[in-house]
Amino acid sequence: MKYISFLLVLLLVVHLFAAETTPKQMILKTDSTLESKTSFQNEEINQYLQSFSVKNIKSILPQLGNYFLVEVDKKIDWQQLQNAKPAAVESIQPNYLNQMLLTPNDTRYDEQLEYLQNINLPAAWNYSTGNGEILVGIVDSGIHFDHPDLNENIFINEAEIPDNGIDDDGNGYVDDWHGWDFTDASELGYMASGDYLEQDNDPTDEYNHGTHVAGIIAADTNNNFGISGVSWNNKVLPVRAGFKTADGVSGYLQDDDAAAGIIYCADMGADIINCSWGSDSFSQIIADACQYAYSKGSILVVSSGNTGQSGVWYPAHLSSTIAVGAVDNNNERAIFSTFGPHLDLVAPGVNILSTYATTEDNYFSTQSGTSMAAPIVSSAISLLLSINSDLTFQEVLNHLTNSCVDLGDNNFDNYYGNGLLDVYTLLTTFNQLEIDISSPAENAYLKDDVEIIGTANCQNFWRYSVAYTTEQNPSSLDWFDVDTHQNTPQYYYEPKENETLASFDLPNIETRYTLRLDMVTTDNQHHYFMKDVYVDKTAPQLYGAYFMKRYKAEKPLYFLQTVFDDKINLELQVQFAQQSYVIHNNVADSILVLPLPENIPQGSCNVNVTATNLSGLENSWNNVLSFYTATETIGVNSYTTQNLDNELKLVDHAIDFNGDDTAAEFIATEIAGASQTNRIFQLQNNELSTLYSFADIFYPLDITSNWAGNKTLSLGISSNEGVLYRVFTTGNNYADSLYWSTGQVYGGAFIDYDLDGTDELALIKNKTINNVTKRVIMLYDENLEEMDYLLNETPTYQRNEFIALKCADLNNDGQAEILTADKDGDIMIFEKIDDKFTMTWHSKLPVQNSYYLDINDYNGDGQLEFCAGGYYQNDTDMNKTFSYFAVFGINENEIELIDYLSFTEVLQKNSLTSGDMDGDGDQELIIAVTPNIYIADLQAGQLTPMWQGEANSIENNSILCLENTNSIIVNKGYGDDYYSILIQPANFTGPA
To answer: Rounded to whole angstroms, what are the CA distances from 455 to 115, 224, 452?
Structure first.
């Protein structure tokens, strides 16, 4: 009986032993050092391990001696290993699995376990679950404060008394007791939704992205609900700097808001700042904000980008941040993860479960992206700082990269950086390592050879080298020594502490160079530090100089634009007959737009230019530009305005609904507080009267009474569906019914594209062509059958999206032309050739967002002209922000630019229409550019503003021109109070 019992115990021990070791791993202690990723320098040890097919060897716990973790491909025979152990191996053992004492009881923890185990997190919780002294700032879309799994770890500013209207802590933010909302994108009303107009103390999430990030970092843990945060006890500081688009699909952050959010986090003492967003474009304001946070001791963790291509996005590209890519649950690079030499490490980023929305069926969601990988690293750092809060940015980065599990090629590679985050090793391995390039500065411009200053030092230092590359995704053959320019590195065998590392003998090619400091340890582990610089040895060259007249309300202003081959600082000398002005720029750029003083005299002037590039090289040009400044202001008294009623979303023309032979009725959405109603209105005695109210709500796009069979149809958009409503009239009685609908519509109009005297339908919508979804203009016949589509194939830096269209016989050839435009400023004309509408003309405006089109006879010559307008928004340089409207005409069948008007204002999406406002037989252009409205006349080839007034709106400030009464209806207001107004000639008394 005793014998049987012993066997049972023995079997139990064997079973537990098998279950509590890591398969195919051994821990080996030896004085030998590594020769490569899979071999030791001691050949006797290599022979000893040969039969197990070694996959990887990694040095661990160097402070305890020479311990190595060996991963093999075959099952390990421990008895064989012990019997054959050579003298060079001091000890060998399994990598035991110790039972975790801390296992969270969260109900969905099992769904997280696979990717959390991949980063060795459960074992790490035995060493740290975080503490409330470590603060993680999240600059994102905000947070859902009422989410049931995010209650415990949201930062509360104890120095601020909530809702007392006082800045108690004196930090410049009133009542910021739980973060701040920096979003103020009122000028993006055409694409933004929700809370985007002004900053406030409520960073509540409207896009769910920030909430998902927050849950990854610090979801409430051990609360018998939901998920586990990586860090159980650290606090998160929610900062809202982004908004949701109107279609609910995307989210964006403006540079100024994001930069302000980073600075706020740093000022509030955030130890870590998570930025799960980025751009492929360098932004000086973001770079400066990151440097500010870096200088204050904050550690910025940033997602590398989701392009799946080479070229880590900004701000992850900066050396003041930690760049994080994504892997899947098989530890393979996620297909979307952006890579390159500036990538620091990777973390799980595919199907990550976290907090999401506030409805019970949507509390949690799995999301994928480098946006999910970054907060995993942020929270791992928070665990590390909970153990040692004195670590600097560079020390944290060194700990991270030194503890990673190597993936891909040996040591660092462009696809995985230094490897996969290993939280257990991060918290238990403390190899003192210092590596840094302090000079030249990041993105410095160099014209002469320079000393590279920095630090290369660690406990088991062997040697270092300094190399450069110009490749975005370099291989080992693309790195060249900074001194010899050879692919073979020049090694230095003495550690350095903030002193000269090497001399950079500048190459002759002027471009961006990535410098790489490569420090190697005695066990052949490589540690890298990278920094970008620019080589520029030649003085700047001027490509062109131009002037532009813009109106600011009624006053004309003049701007000078220069284009160089280089980023430069500029001095302009503007010389008039009696006086001169000297103008300088604030921020270096290759394209500069500078305003002349508002009080300049009227008359001729000449411009001299002196430019200095960022390398300090200078060049000068005299008399590069001559022009005449006219200072007359626009009249403001020739038209009167009066308030009508609530704000209106207007269709830009009226029709004869009631059969009284006057086109005096129109359709609009009336906005009254939070409610919206579609109505048919009539203007009588300068007052609006409602003729009919629709039961359904839709955004009105167009109206026609010229559909086949004399039907009256209204076109609109409702929840991204294009909808047609038929309107029935019998005397003064109205009715409507839904006539037709189709999905995924982004705009449209009724047009007579076959000139048969009745209207057809054109819709801007998506169409899949050869497995690629493209934005097209779809043409429908009177039976609403698809007949043709227009495809935008103009060169673009983004998706070619049609955004506006008009139709007319522009050249009097008996064939209709379709005029259209897209978001990057392309203006196009399509004509029917061989039964297919084909682009026959194309021009590009000097602005983007060309939403505004109009066709009419502006000069009374019987020939149609057309106007195309748009705007360009630059958040960091307001001199480059302007609206632009150009009039084109046809001369001998050639389309020519006649003239343009430009305005300083770009606040919201605005409108363009035309009508005979002065009764002279030609049509005046009516342009709403918030907060102004202009009436302009084309006279003798010049487009002249005749009147300026005020008009603005929360949304698209559409214009209705009622020619039968010489009237304009538009919107006006401020704050929360908006209303429609009536504009008429000053001597006009209204209809009898």
So the answer is: 35, 48, 10
At 235, the pLDDT band (50, 70, 90 cuts) reads very high
pLDDT of 798 > 80? The answer is: no
Cα 692 from chain centroid (whole Å) = 43
Q: How far apart are CA 933 and CA 939, in angstroms?
A: 19
d(CA 218, CA 150): 8
Q: Given strand 911-915, what is the order of strands in its sheet?
A: 911-915, 924-929, 932-939, 942-950
Cα(386)–Cα(950) distance, rounded to whole angstroms? Answer: 57
Q: Please compute Rg for the chain using Cα positions.
A: 34
Pseudo-torsion of CA 127, 128, 129, 133, nearest 10°? 160
Closest-CA residue to 467 (of 530, 536, 402) = 530
- What pTM, to 2 d.p., does this model score? 0.66
User: Two tokens at 548?
Assistant: 């532009």
Task: Please give the DSSP secondary-structure letter assigned to residue 957.
Answer: -
Q: How many CA atoms lie within 13 A of 498 on its CB side?
A: 0
Residue of 59, 106, 140, 175 with catalytic role: 140
Query: Residue 250 catalytic?
Result: no
Q: What is the dihedral of CA 376, 382, 383, 384, to 10 degrees?
A: 110
> What does the pLDDT average to over 640-653?
90
> Phi then psi for 787, rounded to 5 degrees?
-110, -35
**Measured between alpha carbons, how far is residue 255 from residues 183, 252, 259, 283 in Å?**
10, 10, 6, 8
Residue 331 in this model has a pLDDT that exceeds 90 = yes
Active-site residue (options: 209, 212, 317, 342): 209
Q: Which of 514, 559, 517, 568 is nearest to 540 (CA)?
A: 568
Q: What phi, psi does 790 have (nearest 5°)?
A: -100, 130
733 within 8 A of 658, measured Cβ to Cβ? no
- What is d(CA 912, CA 903) in angstroms, rounded to the nearest whole number? 14
Question: Annotated catalytic, 209?
Answer: yes
Other Cβ atoms closer than 10 A to 536? 21
Sorted by where each starts, the structural domains of the chain and their CATH numbers stand as 20-96 (3.30.70.330), 109-430 (3.40.50.200), 437-535 (2.60.40), 542-629 (2.60.40), 663-912 (2.130.10.10)
702 catalytically annotated: no
Are the CB atoms for 109 and 102 separated by under 8 Å?
A: no
- Per-residue CA distances from 738 to 600, 697, 718, 760, 785 (Å): 59, 12, 12, 17, 17
CB neighbours of 87 closer than 8 A, spacing ≥ 6? none
pLDDT tens digits along 561-615: 999 999 999 999 999 988 999 999 888 899 999 999 988 899 999 999 999 999 9
Provide the β-strand partners of residue 655: 665
Strands 272-275, 135-140: pairing kind: parallel
**Residue 941 buriedness (CB in 10 A; 0-12 / 13-18 / 19+):** exposed
Catalytic pick among 141, 354, 371, 378: 371
Per DSSP, helices labelled H in 32-74 are 43-49
Mapped onto helix, strand or coil, the DSSP state of residue 954 is: coil
Q: Are 850 and 870 in contact (CB under 8 A)?
A: yes
Using CA atoms of 440, 443, 447, 453 in order, give the dihedral in degrees to the nearest 10: 10
In the chain, DSSP finds a helix count (H) and a strand count (E) of 11, 59
Q: CA 510 → CA 210, 506, 565, distances in Å?
A: 41, 9, 12
Region of 53 (left: φ > 0; alpha: ψ -120 to 50; beta: rest) is left
Give yes or no for a contact between 288 and 451, defined as CB atoms under 8 angstroms apart: no
The per-residue pLDDT of the chain, averaged, comes to: 88
Query: Is the pLDDT score of 990 beyond 60?
Result: no
CB count within 10 Å of CB 429 equals: 17
Comparing C-alpha atoms, which of 122, 106, 250 is closest to residue 191? 250
Strand partners, 549: 558
Give the C-alpha separation, 379 to 385, whole Å: 10
